[in-house]
Each structure stands twice: as structure tokens, then as C-alpha cells.
Design a protein that fits this description.
The protein has a single domain, classed as TIM Barrel (Alpha-Beta Barrel). It is built from eleven helices and ten strands. The chain is of the alpha/beta class. The chain binds NADP nicotinamide-adenine-dinucleotide phosphate.
């Protein structure tokens, strides 16, 4: 699996990682996530919100403590990301939420800690300064933001300083390329990694028949599956990585194959079949 720079942190992340929102079956999810790790999908994404929903952080804590192929715990091979919920945006609540995540994840440091989205009672500056404090305290290696539009990014950068935002995690899939309108170019210009969430539209994948037929045709010419072509298209620029969620081993294996370079002509055909409409949206 090819890796890319995570912002300006010096951390390397694979082009295709793994999401863990809305896990349904813990045993299946563990098996699938492990296979993903073996295949190099070592960027693992969770959130306190996903813990509340389906115990994602607790599951990952157990899983990443297991020995990898070299005998060292999988945690040591991972770029582990979690997120603070906006309702915990006050300074003390950010620290306490991070501590809870660290305990559940059985680790003493997160590689990336995101502000999940802008909202809640606390001023943005307070939340971001609290995240910076966690970096200084050694609990977190890098700061991420999520669902931030360009205005939010400018404001966050003014608070934190240039080069401090490692990643902006946003909705980005073939049928919703709104991130490409303004947010992705801003991230590219400022050395911020764009992490594509819901790269398969949370499972809906491609609904439009005509566009699906074109994607099928491109995939067949490129010798890959339509989902692999979709992932390859999303991560075609070096500042973008994707985090599909899969709890079926076959799905994970297919997704790992999305780390491929499409020919220019294939990129252009997918681009034309799935045009950018509007700006950034969230789910
Ligand atoms: P997604 O990755 O777009 O789609 C997941 C769905 O696609 C699951 O139903 C999965 O099935 C299925 N799938 C995966 N690979 C497949 C394959 N090769 N063939 C057929 N089906 C396949 O959805 P998502 O979970 O919304 O997004 C991914 C991750 O992004 C999340 O898990 C989370 O970590 C993150 N996220 C972040 C935010 C945010 O606000 N920051 C919001 C949403 C998501 P199985 O599970 O049955 O394999």
C-alpha cells in the first residue's frame, strides 16, 4: 500500500485506511479490520461518537493490543485517529474526552485527534487551543478537524497557526464531490490532508444507472472493480486519503486494491460521469 504525508506532521498514512462507524457485528468487524491491517490499511479511524453507537473504540483497543506479524502490537503499526464530539468542546471536556478515548483504545497517545464538527456551546478558539494543549501534553501527535468548510479552516488556522492542522476529514464520494469545489484545493495549498469519509456514500455507492455503467466500463478497462476505480479516483491527488468502512473480509480485500493509479483517460471519464455539483456537504 502506498503511503502519503499526513499534513506536515512527518507521519505517513496509507492511501486507503479503515473507518469504524456503525459496526454491526463485533466479531466480523474484528476479522475484517485485522485483514485490513495485514494489507497495509493501517490508518484506523474512530470517534467517541462511534463508541457511544457501537463500541468502536473499545473494540479497537482490544484489537490493536494483539500482536501483529512481527510480534509487536498492531497499535505500533497504526495511525490511530479519534474525534472529540462538539458537545465536549470546552477545554476541560476536551481533555477528559481525550483521556476516555485513550483508555478505551488502550493507548497513551493518539496519532490524530479531530474536532468532529463545528458546533456546541464552546467557542471554536477554546476547543482548538485545548487540542493544541493535548499535543503539548503528549496525548496527541497531530490535530485534525472534520466537516470544516473553507471559512472554518481559515478561522482554525488563524487560531492554531500555519501548518498545525494535519487533516480535514470530509464527506467525499463519487456522487458527492462537493469537497472538490473549494475545500480540497484549500487543503492542497495549505499542506492539509483531506481524509475522504463515506467514500462509498455510506453503502449507497452509485445510484445513477448511466454513471454506474460508465464506471463499470472504466473499471473493466483498468482491470479493477468499480469500487476500486472509485477509491483510486478519490485518492488520485497526493493530499487525499480515504477511509472506507467494511466489516466483511472480502470487502476489505477489494478496498485494499483501490490503491492503484488510474490512467489519465480513465480519470477524465469518471470525472465527466460524476460531475462536481455544489460545495461541501456533511451527513
Ligand atoms: P462507507 O465507507 O462509504 O460505506 C460503508 C458501507 O459500504 C458498509 O455498508 C460496507 O459494508 C460497504 N462496503 C465497504 N466496502 C465494500 C465493498 N468492497 N463492496 C461492497 N460493499 C462495501 O461509509 P461510512 O462508514 O459512512 O464512511 C467510512 C468511515 O468514515 C466511517 O466508518 C467513519 O470512520 C468515517 N466517517 C466520518 C464522518 C465524520 O463526520 N467525520 C462521517 C461519516 C463517516 P460492510 O460493512 O458489510 O462490509
Amino acid at each position: 500500500m502506498r503511503t502519503r504525508a499526513l499534513g506536515k506532521t512527518g507521519i505517513q498514512v496509507p492511501a486507503i485506511g479503515q473507518g469504524t462507524w456503525q459496526l454491526r457485528d463485533a466479531r466480523a468487524a474484528e476479522e475484517a479490520l485485522l485483514e485490513g491491517l495485514r494489507l497495509g490499511m493501517v490508518h484506523v479511524d474512530t470517534a467517541e461518537l462511534y463508541e457511544w453507537g457501537s463500541g468502536s473504540e473499545t473494540l479497537l483497543g482490544g484489537l490493536l493490543s494483539k500482536p501483529g506479524e512481527d510480534g509487536r502490537p498492531w497499535r505500533e503499526h497504526c495511525v490511530l485517529a479519534s474525534k472529540v464530539h462538539p458537545r465536549n468542546g470546552a477545554a476541560k471536556a476536551v481533555a477528559s474526552a481525550c483521556k476516555d478515548s485513550l483508555v478505551r483504545l488502550q493507548t497513551d497517545r493518539l496519532d490524530l485527534y479531530y474536532h468532529h464538527w463545528r458546533g456546541g456551546q464552546a467557542p471554536l478558539e477554546e476547543t482548538l487551543q485545548a487540542l493544541a494543549g493535548l499535543v503539548d501534553a503528549g496525548w496527541v501527535r497531530a490535530i485534525g478537524v472534520s466537516n470544516y468548510d473553507v471559512e472554518d479552516l481559515e478561522e482554525a488556522q488563524a487560531v492554531l497557526g500555519r501548518g498545525r492542522i494535519a487533516a480535514n476529514q470530509v464527506l467525499y464520494h463519487l456522487e458527492d464531490r462537493g469537497a472538490e469545489a473549494e475545500v480540497s484545493p484549500w487543503c492542497r495549498r495549505h499542506g492539509v490532508t483531506l481524509v475522504a469519509y463515506s467514500p462509498f456514500g455510506s453503502g449507497a455507492f452509485v445510484r445513477s444507472g448511466r454513471a454506474a455503467a460508465e464506471l463499470d466500463a472504466v473499471a473493466s478497462e483498468a482491470g479493477c472493480t468499480p469500487r476500486q476505480a472509485a477509491l483510486a479516483f478519490l485518492v488520485r491527488e497526493p493530499h487525499v486519503v480515504a477511509i472506507p468502512k467494511a466489516e466483511k473480509v472480502a470487502h476489505v480485500r477489494e478496498n485494499a486494491g483501490g490503491d492503484l493509479k488510474l490512467r489519465k483517460e480513465h480519470v477524465e471519464r469518471i470525472d465527466a460521469a460524476f460531475p462536481v455539483r455544489g460545495g461541501l456537504r456533511t451527513i
